[in-house]
């Protein structure tokens, strides 16, 4: 059979670019990578058949540079473009620009992206399709008064959300009328700065929901089906960490109703290709949350339970072929779980980004284990892109088998050079609430105690250094070595004082800060960057008086804004950074002369 396309350009990077290229190559389709200056040696470039430089470092300079990508498409002669997720995947203008070149955009029609890209409009579309959205407004909230009126009528808490928001950003939870004005202003500012659009709206904030989403697929021949749901309730900062299918404990009649509702929403928007309709489920009821008009990060769990390669199906549908399955022919088997392995330090539940260079990567394997990674040894994880390194996906004949298999797979996983969240995944997988399926979207942040996680080992290039399993509370970093005693092999963990190894600035700073916090201590007034990143704004000037804990600047790394706070009360003596500056972990940003400079500093 002739392949549906000759050559596909993947307008993305990281694990999703690799994942899309693999299916293309399975189908005999040539693959084209585009890459930023920082990515010239990345895995997606190494596995592509051809690669074109698009320049730049930041996303805006590279993977969001339409002209550069169009130029690569022309030079390569690609006949289709796959956008992956993120970047341009839900950008109607980009899809139109690709089509104008006579190249196929592998995704939905631009009109469907527009209808679902704006949350107020998508809520109206859901209602048109006979599906109830989360109770809330169908018009933009113009002022804090609108928010207060909504709270008075429907009760608190509520969520103020950016109409053009996404990626877990642009949302504020408000508990009462008194805090509504400040929350409204902060949300509007964030909406404008992050999404370029200030429009906000209000929704009831559900306090113990499950995030359950439905994978749909539609073709250009009028067929639209759903392929099961995914439970994405293990979240931090309203962002997904672990996904599974089927959703534990979801009654089958609810599942069927959600599937049918998702298909109706897709039909109401004239949808074509792969899409996801998200719901919040609480107390036996499911409400429409939003629709994502692209392939999702967590699509592999649907692939493992249905046996369908969703990227292959995307290619077919984009080429004008009918769906290769019907609603009746889709069979779901067993249970699948995905853990997102991020370069982030979960210590104390903070999940701080951790850029660096990968010095070791041992992948798990065995029956029912799939690893979709975007990195290899020697690759640098940049502060400019998101921090997803790899996805570990397992299949089991039932949930318990899948859960145990994931624990085994996590135990085999070793990534050195950056701090990862593997230990946090282990803590979740072994938690009785998760095992019993009693969790919700609030659960991880409210109920899981990350204070017992070992401090993250400092990134290192030494091959004998392995990661620390969950629950091994130690004061300093640990080193694992293998020894033989009487011919029997033992793994020994050796604890060293913090000073015994050359400190990496960010890790050293994080440790110092943790120690300071533990002691309820005051810092020395040298405010350092907790990680490599870019300064977004500076909130103090030389001569200002500051309180301990007062925000002094915002540092962005890996799409996450981190508020940097004064560690001591005093007067600002020096401001060493400006917005736009790139700083390294441990760099001194601001110097404060402590109010009582004579007091000893217990953190030192
Ligand atoms: P984004 O587009 O940023 O992903 P979503 O609207 O999809 O934002 O919401 C992301 C997450 O935020 C949800 O999975 C859920 O955990 C939480 N959330 C969003 N809206 C509500 C709400 N009304 N009540 C409770 N939680 C919510």
Question: Could you say which overall geometry the principal axes of the C-alpha atoms support?
Answer: globular
Proportion of strand residues: 25-35%
What summary fits the major beta sheet? 8 strands, antiparallel
Ligand inventory: adenosine-5'-diphosphate
N/C terminus separation: 69 Å
Radius of gyration: 25 Å
Total DSSP helices? 16
Instruction: List segments where confidence is low: pLDDT < 50 over at least 5 consecutive residues.
Output: 460-477, 498-509, 515-522, 598-604
Give a description of the structure.
This protein is of the alpha+beta class. It folds into 5 domains: 7-106, Rossmann fold; 135-204, 2-Layer Sandwich (Dna Ligase, domain 1); 211-333, D-amino Acid Aminotransferase, Chain A, domain 1; 340-434 and 447-465, D-amino Acid Aminotransferase, Chain A, domain 1, CATH 3.30.470.20; 507-598, RNA polymerase II/Efflux pump adaptor protein, barrel-sandwich hybrid domain (OB fold (Dihydrolipoamide Acetyltransferase, E2P)). The strands form 9 sheets. The chain has an 8-stranded antiparallel beta sheet. A 5-stranded parallel beta sheet has the order 3-2-1-4-5. Strand 10 and strand 11 form a beta hairpin. Helix 7 (144-154) crosses helix 8 (180-195). Adenosine-5'-diphosphate is lined by residues 134, 159, 165-169, 203-206, 209, 211, 235, 238, 278, 280, 289-290, 441.
């Amino acid at each position: 059979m002739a392949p549906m396309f000759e050559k596909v350009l993947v307008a993305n990077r990281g694990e999703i670019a690799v994942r899309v290229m693999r299916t293309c190559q399975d189908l005999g389709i040539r693959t084209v990578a585009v890459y930023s200056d920082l990515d010239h040696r990345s895995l997606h470039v190494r596995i592509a058949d051809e690669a074109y430089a698009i320049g730049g470092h930041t996303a805006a300079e590279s993977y969001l540079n339409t002209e550069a990508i169009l130029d690569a498409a022309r030079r390569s002669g690609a006949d289709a473009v796959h956008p992956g997720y993120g970047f341009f995947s839900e950008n109607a203008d980009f899809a139109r620009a690709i089509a104008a070149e006579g190249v196929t955009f592998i995704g939905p029609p631009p009109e469907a992206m527009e209808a679902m890209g704006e949350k107020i409009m998508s809520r109206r579309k859901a209602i048109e399709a006979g599906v109830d959205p989360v109770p809330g407004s169908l018009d933009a909230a113009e002022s804090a008064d609108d928010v207060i009126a909504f709270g008075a009528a429907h009760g608190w808490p509520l969520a103020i959300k950016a109409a053009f928001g996404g990626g877990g950003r642009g949302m504020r939870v408000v508990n009462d009328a008194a805090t509504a004005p400040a929350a409204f202003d902060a949300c509007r500012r964030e909406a404008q700065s992050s999404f370029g659009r200030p429009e906000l709206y209000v929704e009831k904030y559900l306090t113990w929901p499950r995030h359950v989403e439905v994978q749909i697929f539609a073709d250009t021949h009028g067929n639209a089906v759903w392929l099961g749901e995914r439970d994405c309730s293990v979240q931090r900062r309203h962002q997904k960490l672990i996904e599974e299918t089927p959703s534990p404990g979801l009654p089958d009649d609810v599942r069927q109703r959600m599937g049918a509702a998702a298909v109706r929403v897709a039909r109401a928007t004239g949808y074509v290709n792969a899409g996801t309709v998200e719901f919040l489920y609480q107390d036996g009821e499911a409400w429409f949350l939003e629709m994502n008009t692209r392939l999702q990060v967590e699509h592999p769990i649907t692939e493992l339970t249905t046996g369908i390669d969703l990227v292959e199906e995307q290619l077919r549908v984009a080429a004008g072929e009918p769906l290769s399955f019907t609603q009746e022919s889709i069979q779901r088997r067993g249970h699948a779980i995905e853990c997102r392995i991020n370069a982030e330090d979960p210590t104390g539940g903070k999940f701080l980004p951790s850029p660096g260079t990968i010095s070791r990567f041992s992948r798990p394997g065995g029956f029912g284990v799939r690893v979709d990674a975007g990195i290899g040894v020697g690759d640098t994880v940049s502060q400019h892109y998101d921090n997803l390194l790899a996805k570990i996906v397992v299949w089991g004949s039932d949930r318990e088998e899948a859960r145990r298999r994931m624990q085994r797979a996590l135990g085999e996983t070793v990534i050195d050079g950056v701090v990862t969240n593997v230990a946090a995944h282990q803590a979740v997988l072994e938690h009785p609430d998760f095992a019993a399926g009693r969790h919700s979207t609030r659960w991880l942040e409210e109920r899981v105690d990350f204070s017992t996680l070992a401090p993250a080992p400092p990134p290192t290039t030494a091959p004998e250094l392995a990661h620390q399993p969950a629950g091994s509370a130690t004061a300093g970093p640990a080193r694992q070595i293998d020894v033989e005693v009487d011919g029997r092999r033992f793994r020994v963990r050796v604890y060293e004082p913090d000073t015994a190894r050359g400190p990496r600035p960010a890790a050293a700073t994080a440790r110092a800060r943790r120690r300071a916090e533990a002691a309820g201590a005051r810092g020395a007034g040298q405010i350092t960057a907790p990680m490599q990143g870019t300064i977004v704004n500076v909130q103090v000037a030389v001569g200002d008086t500051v309180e301990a804990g007062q925000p002094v600047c915002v540092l962005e790394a890996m799409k996450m804004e981190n508020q940097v706070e004064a560690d001591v009360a005093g007067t600002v003596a020096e401001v060493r950074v400006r917005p736009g500056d790139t700083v390294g972990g441990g760099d001194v940003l601001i110097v404060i002369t402590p109010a009582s400079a004579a007091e000893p500093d217990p953190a030192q």
